[in-house]
Design a protein that fits this description.
mainly beta
């Protein structure tokens, strides 16, 4: 089922022209067959799954009213939103809030300064992996291109069993990592990729197509053979138009492409969506697995389709060649250098964990934002947050450069909450074997570096990014491949904590959520004074 944004917008017309958009979610657990093969547990809202996309205009205030009908807490994250002045609405469980307890209500208020293609998903106990996710479209105040229609492809990987069962089988004491390959099916706009309806083109017209990967592990390639395609937006950032033959989209990433229709309706064509994971065993028909849909010019026209689809030259790291339309130059001078190397290690529990800094990431006993707000001058000391948060304290106005090395064949996508960052450079990781050095030559931006909020780094590759610490808050930086995040591949940025203390007060409604869950709202990461970390687990 292809979603037509213009048509969908008409269905919610009373909301679209209001400065205050109310959306009501009753979060529930369901048993559904979404991929056409397996009936399994999934999450939904208001008794339905997939969850309908959310649309607002730039400048609107979205009020997302959430009732939690689950038997566990939940929290709702607005992926890509800056939330300046309201970091407590970031919706990250045990980071910016405690979570919404079972049976309770909470309302998130989001007034974006951004526009473009985003998404909303649970950030509690990896509920997003089982369906608690949906696109979030902020319509442009000024059209970024002239197009006939605005189409949406939200892409998801869907596994035969829930996430909890997958991690239980994988992350057991003594079980080696990586595990045996698992293969997912693709959902397109919430349904089996083979069940999508045609998209309709008119000769000579242009179309904007938004492509979102809301998956947790797999990558997607999207193409329209025989059609000219230009990237015009990346994760809410308008770009200088850039010709491509398709887009490669990692978990959490988004693109808008402008597609030129043919001049005549003599033929119909196809679009191609390929789901794949480059770091697991190839299995014809499963990895990669291609799905085809119809691009219809005229109902009875013959289909002009290539004998085969070769999307091997569509690469995610083409973003190094993209330029931001606003021509913002490279941020400099760098005042904070950070180097991270992805590693795995068997810890004291005899389980393999992923490490970005010195330890595998885990949440503290007190949500990190409360520690930043209640520890006074000690909030500038990373040790008060607990070693398992991997806290990195940033001064207000810091220009931060992060250099990240993927030290194995595993690919990763990383998302930074509360910011966009500039893509500066790619190259071979410090330990890359010769064949990967040849595959990953050093490539540096030219012009105005692209800004985005979710990057992809391939196996044995490094990437350099930069951002400015101008948004006081506590912002997670984590792998968006949920197994890796679950294993600990994340760090926490504590951004300008003294300025945060001066500028925000936690809403009483958020404090009450913590009280209902018997979670402390003051103290260090263990809920104690000073550096007393009694109660935190041994790493």
């Amino acid at each position: 089922m292809l979603l037509n944004i213009v048509t969908t917008a008409l269905l919610v017309l009373p909301l679209c022209f209001s400065a205050h958009v109310d959306v009501y979610w009753d979060v529930v657990s369901l048993m559904l067959n979404r991929d056409g093969y397996t009936t399994r547990a999934t999450y939904g809202v208001n008794g339905k799954s997939p969850i309908p996309p959310v649309y607002i205009d730039k400048g609107d205030t979205l009020a997302l009213h959430v009732h939690n009908s689950l038997d566990e807490p939940t929290a709702i994250h607005f992926h890509g939103m800056f939330l300046k002045g309201t970091p407590y609405y970031d919706g990250t469980g045990m980071v910016t809030e405690c979570g919404i307890p079972p049976g309770k209500n909470f309302t998130y208020y989001v007034t974006p300064e951004q526009e473009g293609t985003y998404w909303i998903h649970s950030h509690y106990n990896h509920q997003d992996a089982d369906g608690l996710r949906t696109p979030f479209i902020i319509r442009d105040s000024t059209p970024i291109a002239d197009y006939e229609d605005d189409l949406l492809f939200s892409l998801e990987d869907w596994y035969p069993v829930p996430f909890s069962e997958r991690v239980h089988s994988i992350l057991q004491p003594g079980v080696p990592f990586p595990p045996a390959p698992e293969y997912a099916y693709a959902l397109i706009n919430g349904y089996n990729g083979n069940d999508t309806k045609p998209i309709n083109f008119k000769p000579g017209k242009k179309y904007r197509i938004r492509v979102l990967n809301m998956g947790i592990t797999e990558q997607f390639k999207f193409s329209l053979p025989g059609h000219r395609m230009q990237i015009i937006e990346v994760e809410g950032e308008r770009t200088v138009p850039y010709d491509v033959n398709g887009v490669d989209v990692g978990p959490g990433q988004r693109y808008s492409v402008l597609v030129e229709a043919k001049d005549t309706d003599e033929f119909n064509y196809i679009y191609n969506v390929t789901i794949y994971a480059g770091f697991i065993t190839l299995a014809p028909g499963r990895n990669p697995h291609s799905y085809f849909g119809l691009v219809e010019y005229k109902p009875d026209a013959p289909i002009n389709a290539p004998a085969s689809i070769d999307d091997s030259n569509i690469h995610a790291t083409n973003d190094i060649y993209l330029n931001s339309y606003d021509e913002e130059p490279l941020l400099e001078p760098v005042t904070k250098d950070l180097v991270f190397k992805f590693t795995t290690k068997i810890m004291a529990d005899n389980i393999t964990h992923s490490i970005l800094g010195n330890y595998p990431y885990n949440t503290a006993l007190v949500p990190t934002i409360y520690t930043a707000l209640t520890m006074g001058d000690l909030a500038t000391n990373p040790n008060v947050y607990g070693n398992q948060t991997q806290a990195q304290v940033l001064d207000y106005g810091d220009i931060v450069e992060i250099e990240m090395h993927a030290t194995s064949i595993l690919d990763h996508t990383f998302h930074l909450h509360g910011h966009k960052f500039q893509i500066v450079e790619y190259g071979p990781a410090f330990n890359a074997p010769d064949e990967y050095i040849a595959k990953n030559p050093v490539r540096r931006f030219k012009g105005a570096p692209l800004k985005r909020d979710t990057l992809k780094v391939n196996g044995f590759q490094y990437i350099k990014i930069r951002f400015k610490a101008d948004n006081p808050g506590v912002w997670l930086f984590h792998c968006h491949m949920d197994i890796h995040f679950y294993m600990g591949l994340a760090v926490m940025f504590i951004e300008a904590p003294l300025e945060l203390q001066k500028t925000i007060t936690m809403p009483e409604e958020i404090n009450q959520l913590c009280h209902d869950l018997n979670v402390k709202t003051s103290g260090n990461g263990a809920g104690n004074a000073g550096f007393n970390m009694t109660g935190l687990p041994v790493l």
